[in-house]
């Protein structure tokens, strides 16, 4: 039985942010993740927005941690080298009778401590964003709002935590949690890949966080998956708006948004549907129709023919409608109900949880903590001289594998060889964008699979799309035919 001081359940943005903060201290920490990689749940399927913090109710953890997380994200993006941009956000009021609701949103933002908020009139909004609805009456403008790459953000936290000593165990699903019966107060965690012992558990399991909480606590919580469907448009549509454009919030959240992405695409969505299936990430015709209709209410002439993919994500909505962060049972700390603005709040959640443990266990900081991380070289963003120098030192950087996103063999090799490296097509895609372009991996997948097989020293038939049984190749027809004709 492997023993640790702290075990984190879940390798999404919350779990990895906590892991990165805990890696500052002299403790043995492990992250257990049931999928084959980090960032396989809600963290990979969301709006990629860093919210300013005006929407959450004053006094809630959502409000406090959103504003703090927004403040931290700029410095973290520089230190950990992941894409982030403060493009600002607009909340549109399309009817004069709804103006009091916009005013209330402004007042909540001021109470929450959001900086530089102001309300724009009709002409000011259209001057800032010419493609928004001509019916716009006013808008709340938040310059501190931003956009981020959620994949690279989560991966950056994980890589930095790993470099600082945190261990990651993938394909490891937690089955049961109980106290060690030997008289110690430690926890026993039974998983699909063995049993672990730990002094402290941090529950960052997303839509499954209620399951683990309810295993150990008499005070039950209930998390319902709230499905959101999205459409991603080609980079040719990426400049249709420059700010993140929201409608006024409703019962189920912030509504359908229209936003550029940090990589130059245009994103529209999400819907909001409460479902029972915690794996229900399928898209639907009705859901995507809602995305098109509602987004067109806010922004005119969205080039919907430029959609290159659609996807759905699940938000972990807890019945109390706030984050649950803290010690639920002795040495069991919840990070549950982390829905929007969870991505924005992740750095602050990491700080908060680490502070709880620091005080509780009198943790000592490492003298050799590495606070920075360098991401994969993006040759497509380099000058010709810089690119040629990379290719001169390693010709693999001159071999383009994904033509849509101009990703080279050298970048894919780097993605595989890094700490917490890629082991699947989706793992490579999240780290390099190979397969995220207009053709959606239609051309580059075979070549990427060959590189994975070679670098991992595994048969190409074992390479998967996203771990588990998602193999691409089930047999080799040509060899079978030749063998049958010998």
Automatic annotation (TrEMBL):
Residues 5-355 form the FAD dependent oxidoreductase domain. Its EC number is 1.1.3.15. Gene3D superfamilies: BFD-like [2Fe-2S]-binding domain, D-Amino Acid Oxidase, subunit A, domain 2, FAD/NAD(P)-binding domain. It comes from the Bacteria. Transmembrane segments: none annotated. InterPro entries: BFD-like_2Fe2S-bd_dom, BFD-like_2Fe2S-bd_dom_sf, FAD-dep_OxRdtase, FAD/NAD-bd_sf, G3P_Oxidase/Oxidoreductase. Keywords: Oxidoreductase. Residues 400-454 form the BFD-like [2Fe-2S]-binding domain. This is L-2-hydroxyglutarate oxidase LhgO. It comes from Blautia obeum. The lineage of its organism: Bacteria, Bacillati, Bacillota, Clostridia, Lachnospirales. The gene is lhgO.
